[in-house]
Design a protein that fits this description.
About 55% of the residues lie in helices and about 5% in strands. By secondary structure, it is α/β, with parallel strands linked by helices. It is built from 20 helices and seven strands. The longest helix has 16 residues. It folds into four domains: about 160 residues, P-loop containing nucleotide triphosphate hydrolases (Rossmann fold), CATH 3.40.50; about 70 residues, Orthogonal Bundle (Helicase, Ruva Protein, domain 3), CATH 1.10.8.60; about 90 residues, Zinc Finger, Delta Prime, domain 3; about 70 residues, no CATH class. About 30% of the residues are buried. α6 links the parallel β3 and β4. The protein is flat and about 95 Å long.
Length: about 425
């Protein structure tokens, strides 16, 4: 139903008298009406619909085919192979008449197609044997091969907003042949909308499940009734999909940005969604080294201890050291000087290649090596006052290169002052 609502909003004229249809916010207005004008002209090019489940991708594709009155072929990436793709291509060739518009091939869950399956589509899309409409819940940048992606426009669908979901429930109660026969009162809708998570299909299934489970008579739907009937985790979290990457990205950036409240929130989202706690702990170790570094070296020690604790105790108690470490890292002073230094050093190594180690820095375990002056001019630091003596440690070709630059944290300011006492103006 939500698909029909959205699809109609795209295709029907802007002045169409239906508030439900015209208020669709699935696409930005610019993209929505760009798609509308393309459909109404009858000249559509291949495109991919990307968005979460239950927002009308499949329904929109079917409505487009019906409006344009073109042959419509469907393939499911879950059950179809290269052989099925080739058969559809051959059928499209045979059924196409001279100068007629190409048929439409709709592929649901196109991200599940292998590289070879996607490769088999290229020629047909390129030569106009059919117009491809793909639907995917995963980011096509990662899941669709570049040559195919470059030949398709991508339209991004958003989850339905609260107002859209409420309108959908009202529409279903008024127009569904079964629901109209029952007396249904929506006293509270927060739980129902939360469990649906912006998925119209899921929302309608929830509504149907609750109604069918109730005896005859008036049905009053409230939060407790929904929670009692469903008894499941309402959070959408695909550990292999984009949601996983989006939330861990938000978590990392919240810690880096010194916002403990946001960091703990995203931590809770991951734990509640079933994320591997060892994965979270590993990210905390990386954060401690990359973003806090020498500004607070204890951060890395705590992050390592957190990983050990999480590994030993598991959930639900693992949430406690994870939260402790998250707050500690988020509130700690920040420095990425070590991270930047190794990046600069690797770039220098790539640029200069395998420069020979200076002779005085080489070990001389054999007589021959000593005769070749290995280690001859080396000065042992502990033989000098303050356990320091100036000497060269870099190859001549890169001597004087500055790779580590202390930042403005109190800890690194102290390190900088110490280095200046040793090396003078170098730091």
């Amino acid at each position: 139903m939500a698909g029909s609502v959205f699809a109609a909003a795209v295709i029907l004229p802007p002045d169409y008298e239906n508030e439900l249809l015209n208020d669709s916010k699935q696409l930005s207005e610019k993209k929505r009406y760009l798609l509308r004008s393309m459909i109404e002209s009858g000249n559509i090019s291949s495109f991919i619909l990307w968005g979460p489940p239950g927002v009308g991708k499949t329904t929109l594709a079917k409505i487009i085919a019906n409006r344009l009155q073109r042959p419509f072929y469907t393939l499911s990436a879950v059950t179809s192979g290269v052989k099925d793709v080739r058969e559809v291509i051959e059928k499209a060739k045979q059924n196409r008449f001279f100068n007629s518009a190409p048929p439409i091939l709709f592929i649901d869950e196109i991200h599940r197609f292998s590289k070879s399956q996607q490769d088999s589509l290229l020629g047909a899309v390129e030569t106009g044997i059919f117009t491809l409409i793909g639907a995917t819940t995963e980011n096509p940048s990662f899941e669709v091969i570049t040559p195919l992606l470059s030949r398709c426009q991508v339209y991004v669908f958003r989850p339905l907003e609260r107002s859209d979901m409420e309108a959908l429930v009202d529409y279903a109660l008024k127009n569904d042949t079964e629901l109209r026969q029952r007396t249904i009162e929506i006293a509270e809708n927060e739980a129902m909308l939360r469990y649906a998570g912006g998925d119209a299909r899921k929302l309608l299934n929830i509504l149907e499940l609750i109604v069918n489970a109730q005896p005859e008579g008036t049905i009053v739907i409230d939060n407790k009734l929904v929670e009692d009937r469903l008894q499941q985790n309402p959070l959408a979290y695909d550990k292999d999909g984009e949601m996983h990457y989006d939330i861990i990205s938000a978590f990392i950036k919240s810690v880096r940005g010194s916002d403990p409240d946001a960091a703990v929130y995203w931590l809770a989202r991951m734990i509640a969604g079933g994320e591997d706690v060892k994965f979270i702990a590993r990210r905390l170790i990386i954060l401690a080294a990359e973003d806090i570094g020498l500004a607070n070296p204890n951060a890395l020690l705590l992050a390592n201890a957190c990983f050990e604790a999480v590994h030993k105790i598991g959930l639900p108690e693992a949430r406690i050291p994870l939260a402790e470490t998250t707050v500690y890292l988020a509130t700690s002073p920040k420095s990425n000087s070590a991270y930047m230094a190794i990046g600069e050093a690797l770039a220098l190594v790539e640029k200069t290649g395998n420069l020979p180690v200076p002779l005085h820095l080489r070990n001389a375990p054999t007589k021959l090596m000593k005769e070749l002056n290995y280690g001859k001019e080396y000065k042992y630091a502990h033989d000098y006052e303050g356990n320091f003596v100036k000497q060269k440690f870099l190859p001549d070709e890169v001597d004087g290169a500055r790779l580590w630059n202390p930042q403005n944290s109190p800890a690194e300011a102290k390190i900088r002052e110490h280095l200046r006492q040793l090396w003078g103006t170098r730091y």
